[in-house]
Amino acid sequence: MNISNIPEVIYILKEEDAKFRTPYVTEVSNEAGKDPFKVLMSCILSLRTKDETTREASIRLFNLADTPEKIIKLTIPEIENAVYPAGFYRTKAKTIREISSELVEKYGSKVPDEIDELLEFKGVGRKTANLVVTMGFGKPGICVDTHVHRIMNRWGFVQTKTPDETEIALRRKLDKEYWIIINDLLVCYGQNICKPISPHCSQCRLAQYCKAVGVTRKR
DNA sequence: AAAACGGGGGC
DNA sequence: GCCCCAGTTTT
Q1: Which of A83, A110, A137 is where one domain is finished?
Q2: Are A213 and A201 in contact (CB under 8 A)?
Q3: Do A40 and A123 lie in a common domain?
């Protein structure tokens, strides 16, 4: 077994992962019948924000309005109040409103299903665009957040400086069938085991193959 | 008390 | 490349 044997890694992590809850945006896409708009809004709310807080803010927002048409009828303060728990509430409320009105005006209230189109919205970067495409439309995409970026580099599976570089590298090195699942697994694994600081290497079943054990920063 | 958090925009 | 967003959780 080698860390570059992704199918084997996935198998190991899946057992590890069973005790963790499904990442929230994934869950939204499931329970919402993969409503791309809800996925997109949840992505915005999840920026730099932990799972549990994203959940609360999303519920509050969708309770008020769950389509772009309904959202543009709200005032900015109403949106801010709804998404307040997620933090960065002013930026996020503004982004949510701008994207919603652009969707209504230029896209017939339909969320685009292409990464390049999604990237044109202000507030949508590669991580969000990939997540909407995969979770909202079931199309292939690799969502590289800081967890995926960090973990892939600790393993030595890639050597990259930014999440965007990591995405490019993974597109080249990883078969499409693993694109979605790797993100899903690594988020849980990254939040609970392979944490940014003081990771729980002693609990990690991949430790014997990892290049960062004992090297990783502790405080 | 300080750093970090499922990024992304502006400069 | 660097700084900002902002309230809550971790260290």
Answers
A1: A137
A2: yes
A3: yes
Q: Give A121-137 pLDDT, tens digit per residue.
A: 999 999 999 999 998 99
What's the predicted TM-score (pTM) here?
Answer: 0.91
Domain that holds residue A153: 6-20+142-209
Is A30 inside a domain boundary? no
Q: Is residue A40 part of a domain?
A: yes
Where b means 16+ CB within 10 Å and e means fewer, A175-185 reads eeebbbebbbb
Phi, psi of A56 (to 5 degrees): -60, -45
Residue A160 lies in a domain: yes
Averaged confidence pLDDT in chain A: 88
State whether the beta carbon of A18 lies below 7 angstroms from any atom of strand B.
no
Number of domains forming the structure of chain A: 2
* A97 sits within 7 Å of strand B by its CB: no
Residues 6+ apart with CB under 8 A from A216: A154, A199, A201
A162 CA vs C2 C1’ separation (Å): 15
Residue A71 lies in a domain: yes
**Span CA (A13) to C1' (C6), Å:** 34
Asked if strand C comes closer than 7 Å to A178 Cβ, the answer is no
